[in-house]
Write a structure and sequence with these properties.
This protein is α/β, with parallel strands linked by helices. The protein has eight helices and six strands; from the N terminus they run E-H-H-E-H-H-E-H-E-H-H-E-E-H. The relative contact order is 0.19. The N terminus is likely disordered.
Length: 229
């Protein structure tokens, strides 16, 4: 079968890994690595929009990341609040819908308030969806969906289960990219990723380039996605 060069993903998941190792390699603090990673996410979103990708699901903070030291977590939460407040008007101007998936109730009240405000103010946009996985873990999401179904007394099947996931209403990722050289998904979207194409790169997240992104898209377009056929 000839390669389908027009085959492009509509939803991409990215495991943004390697900020701290990138900083260490350059003799910088881990805080500077996280800042660089935050700026890279801002840079990447337009790349996806240019290619017609409609949804990005970015793994920003896992349930395991709560084990990190307090100073690092506080700095990450400071960056999060910058995104939630100072980036709001820019996101609205670009008609980007923002949704957060994960155990949002574990964050401070002010962060939760800002999260709800950003979600509410962008909920009607349809040009591009940005899902940020915060305090996210795949097992935690699955257990959450199961408990919702038990509480409702609903029949458990693939359709009802999917409707009770944190990502309900958004597409499953066609491809997932992980930076930094690790070749595992680390609990990222285990239910949604059953048919995702996986790409692993040794590049640290702050160094991830548009050229490499385009190369991954070209590789994706050449793959024949059978999906059970």
């Amino acid at each position: 079968m000839p390669e389908d060069k027009t085959n492009k993903p509509q939803c991409i998941g990215i495991i943004m890994d390697g900020n701290r190792r990138w900083a260490k390699k350059k003799g910088l603090t881990s805080f500077e690595g996280h800042t660089a990673g935050y700026k890279k996410l801002e840079e990447v979103v337009p790349w996806l929009k240019e290619e017609g990708v409609k949804t990005l699901i970015a793994y920003a903070f896992s349930t395991e990341n709560w084990k990190r030291d307090e100073d690092e977590k506080n700095y990450l939460f400071k960056l999060l609040n910058v995104f939630l407040t100072k980036e709001k008007e820019k996101l609205k101007k670009n008609k980007i819908r923002v949704k957060f998936i994960g155990q949002i109730d574990r964050f401070s009240e002010d962060i939760q308030k800002n999260i709800r405000a950003l979600e509410e103010e962008t909920k009607d946009f349809s040009d591009f969806n940005l899902l940020l996985a915060l305090s996210y873990g795949g097992r935690a999401e699955i257990l959450s969906a199961v408990n919702k179904l038990i509480k409702k007394g609903d029949e458990v099947n693939e359709e009802t289960f999917s409707k009770n996931l944190w990502s309900a209403g958004f597409p499953d990722p066609d491809l997932i990219i992980r930076t930094s050289g690790e070749q595992r998904t680390s609990g990222f979207l285990p239910w949604q990723a059953v048919y995702s194409e996986l790409f692993f790169t040794k590049t640290y997240w702050p160094d991830f380039s548009k050229e490499e992104f385009n190369s991954i898209l070209a590789d994706f377009s050449s793959r024949e996605r059978r999906i059970g056929k």
